[in-house]
Amino acid sequence: MSLLLDNEFKPLPPDKCVDTEAFLEAVSHLPSFFDCLGSSVFAIIKADITGNITKIKTAYLKDPQKFVTLQDLLISEREAQADKWPLVGATLALMWLKRGLRFIQILLQSLADGERDANNPNSIRVNVVKAYEQALKRYHGWLTQKLFSMALLAAPCRSNFLKALSKGEDVGEEDCLAKVRQFLENFTPTVDAIYEMYTKLNAELSYTV
Ligand code: CIS
User: Is residue 48 within 6 Å of ligand 1 at its C-beta?
Assistant: First the structure.
């Protein structure tokens, strides 16, 4: 069984509210994936994402019955810390986590769509750059953009990346991409719903780091 399908996201309900517990369970498997990528530059990204998840989980565990959906969490923080919100707690952590999730979504979709550099078909550079430009670049100052360039140099080749997604199992490329497409069926609407929630609650910030 592939890594992706071991950790599928749940389908969204009709009201598109994301269940906090199910979301935290699904994203909790993400950080360990960075260990398969084989470069220490990914440790920085892993630490950042792990910190986001821990912060959201800590806020959720204060009152799981109250914070059934991610929206419940954000609204509660808005009421409790109106002067600082949305630059606080789980609201800020999820704001950044969703950008990382959008990066992953665009990267996987681009691979699933077969987008490649004709001169270097075993590279994922075009896919990674597309994901970065659409999901993260506008929030990064020059220093963090340099960090991205370093991560890009350390990015695995396409075949190794697909193998890592399959937990090192010897599955064919097409089988792996079929599983990526299946993973995206629930993952993409979940990420979209979180973005829509930030827009609706006016919780999005545009500062750079
Ligand atoms: C394969 C090649 C990948 C290349 C990846 C290049 C990515 C870009 C590299 C940039 C380095 C960014 C390092 C960190 C920067 C942080 O400064 C920045 C801002 O941080 C936030 C904190 O998170 O700052 C806030 C204050 O202003 C807060 O401190 C906040 O923390 S809080 O609030 O919690 O306390 N952070 C970012 O810019 C976010 C960077 C996210 C990068 C995501 C990159 C993901 C790369 C993934 C590649 C592999 C794809 C894997 C695909 C699929 C895996 C499927 C796994 C299945 C399991 C599913 C579970 C989901």
Answer: yes
By alpha-carbon position, which residue is closest to atom 1 of ligand 1?
155
Predicted confidence at residue 122, as pLDDT, reads: 96
In a domain? residue 9:
no
pTM for the model stands at 0.95
Tell me whether 0.95 is exceeded by the ipTM: no
What HEC string does 126-142 produce? HHHHHHHHHHCHHHCCH
Whether 2 is covered by a domain: the verdict is no
- Find the domain containing 51 and state its range: 20-197
Ligand 1 centroid–CA 27 distance in Å is 12
C-alpha 128 – ligand 1 centre gap (Å) = 13
Q: How far is the CA of 49 from the centre of ligand 1 (A)?
A: 5
| 36 in any annotated domain | yes
CATH number for 155: 1.10.3520.10
